[in-house]
Amino acid sequence: MKSSAAKAVTNFRDQGAIETWIASYIARVIEKDAGELDENATFESFGLDSVSVVGMTGDLGQWLEREIDPVVVYDHPSIRGLAAYLAASR
Q1: Partner of 34 for a Cys bridge, out of 22, 23, 44, 74, CB 3.0 to 4.6 A?
Q2: Residue 90 has what pLDDT?
Q3: 79 in any annotated domain
Q4: Does the residue 3 lie in any domain?
Q5: Residue 12, pLDDT score
Q6: Coil, strand or helix: which one is 42?
Q7: b/e burial code for range 16-26 (CB count within 10 A of at least 16 → b)
Q8: Strand partners, 42
Q9: pLDDT, tens digit (0-9, with 9 covering 90-100), for 35-64
Q10: Whole-prediction pTM value?
Q11: For residue 41, is it within any domain?
Q12: pLDDT band at 9 (very low <50, low <70, confident <90, very high)
């Protein structure tokens, strides 16, 4: 059974928090403001290549405290899509 502190940590990583994390990461990579990014645009449209995707999923996995296969980005190719998938698959 998880402690209340562990539950609080898990709960803050909801879809919205994951979307914010991904948008902030991409914004840093492409040197734009995160608020300018369309959450439904594809990662490819932001100019992310496979190296960027591997780096992003690695860092995201550390933040979420679980391993994320970089291939999921191709199955869920937008900020919103990937965040929804990750939030649902906790």
Answers
A1: 23
A2: 75
A3: yes
A4: no
A5: 56
A6: strand
A7: eebbebbbebb
A8: 78
A9: 999 999 999 999 999 999 999 999 999 999
A10: 0.84
A11: yes
A12: very low
Rounded CA gap, 66 and 25, in Å? 17
For residues 52 and 47, what is the distance between their CA atoms, to the nearest angstrom?
9
pLDDT at 18 over 50: yes
Mean pLDDT of the chain: 88
3-state DSSP percent of the chain in helix, strand and coil, to 5? 65, 0, 30
Q: Please give the tally of structural domains in the chain.
A: 1
Which residue is listed with tokens 């391993």? 67
CB 67 within 8 A of CB 14: no
What is the number of residues in the chain? 90
What letter would DSSP give residue 78?
B
Answer yes or no: is 1 within a domain.
Answer: no
Q: 51: domain range? A: 13-88
Q: pLDDT-based confidence at 2, cuts 50/70/90?
A: very low
Q: What is the CATH number of the domain that holds 80?
A: 1.10.1200.10
